[in-house]
Amino acid sequence: MSHPPESWRAPARACARVSSRWRNSTGSSQSVHARGGYTLIEMLAAMTAASLLMLGLAASVVISTSLIEPTDEDGQRTRDRVILDRLQHDLRYATSIDSMSGYDVSIERPDLSNQPQSLQYEAYMDGLMRNVSGGTSTELDPQAPTVNHYVDGYTAATSNLNLRRPRIRDVVTATTTGGSASSLTIEIPDGARPGDLLLLVVASRNAFFVNPAPSGWQQLDYSFNAGILLDLHGQWMSTSTPDAYLLNFFWGGDVVAAVLAIEHANGSWPFGWSGSSFGTSINGNTSTYPRPLENTDTIGERTLNLQLIASTGAPSPQTSLGIASFSECVNEVGSPGTSGECTLGIAFRTGPMPPMTTTPHVLHQQSANWTTIAVEVEGQSE
Predict the structure, then answer these.
(1) Average pLDDT by consecutive 10-residue portion of the chain (382 residues)?
(2) What is the C-alpha to C-alpha distance for residues 228 and 203, in angstroms, rounded to an integer?
(3) Within 13 A of 59's CA, how many CA atoms are on the CB side?
(4) Cys-Cys link to 309, which of 125, 189, 213, 345 (CB 3.0-4.6 A)?
(5) If residue 244 lies in a helix (H) or strand (E), which one and from where to where?
(6) Do 360 and 326 form a contact (C-beta atoms < 8 A)?
(7) Which NCBIfam families does this chain map to (predicted)?
(8) Do 351 and 282 meet the contact criterion of CB atoms below 8 Å apart?
């Protein structure tokens, strides 16, 4: 058998190598043709899978929506609460309420600047609307509720009189400096008004007596201890009350005084009860310090509870008298730094002291002789 010439062998070997590479990459020596479409079974399977996927997504959307959106009943309850809160706020400061028809309610009240403001709630064809001083109405509920308007009250014959709470309107103080003076001027508080109860409180040492002039003051109570005297005077302020008074005392006396202007005190007789005490403070022993006094049988919830404390030296810190549950309006030292140094403190509260595990007391940081007067001031009837 004859062999092909050598010139043919090289192209033949190249074609064999190309054919071998094609079989290795395709796995077959057959030619590959592009598909022209899908079978009916494949299309039905794809549509079924897509339908199942859409049903799953729709179910998740419904579940999520039901979790985050309230039902109609929940939404109505929320609107009802908002309407109720708004109506209660409007009624809280209302000065008048009226209903002109069966579908609206008018309310008069002051606004934030204390100017008259008119509010109207109307339940009609547009639902429940709220209008402020004739402005644009606001829809509170698309549904119109039924409007019911009632007036409740009682006649004056069956009512009980209320007591107006007495209150300290203003305070002034005056003190000696420790020199050889024999008088001290004290003014009436600027805030005092005719009809106010004026109380003159004087703590003194080395003075023997303190006499206010001009006359008009009535001595109400006094208390004393070794080296310290506490006086209480009172009068009603009128249009003829002087602007200032002169306190006369023995030459070289040491005095600290205060005038309190009290409004709404009972004009018939303002004092429900008074009491006094005295003692000596021992530094570090709180049981020896002055304590507030009150009569639990007479004091009322609106009673002005006054505590007047006089002491030798300056035992209390100038920042506070330290009486728990009481506020203070006076904490002054007369003739400071001298042998006649004396202190006047005045504390007050409304009503009786609250129950406490430890009885309140005046804070003393050094030993001193002291004396106190407690006064209950009653209010006037409304």
Answers:
(1) 53 51 48 59 74 66 50 68 74 76 77 80 77 80 64 48 83 94 95 97 94 94 96 97 96 96 94 96 95 93 96 94 94 96 97 91 96 96 67
(2) 7
(3) 6
(4) 345
(5) strand 244-249
(6) yes
(7) IV_pilin_GFxxxE
(8) no
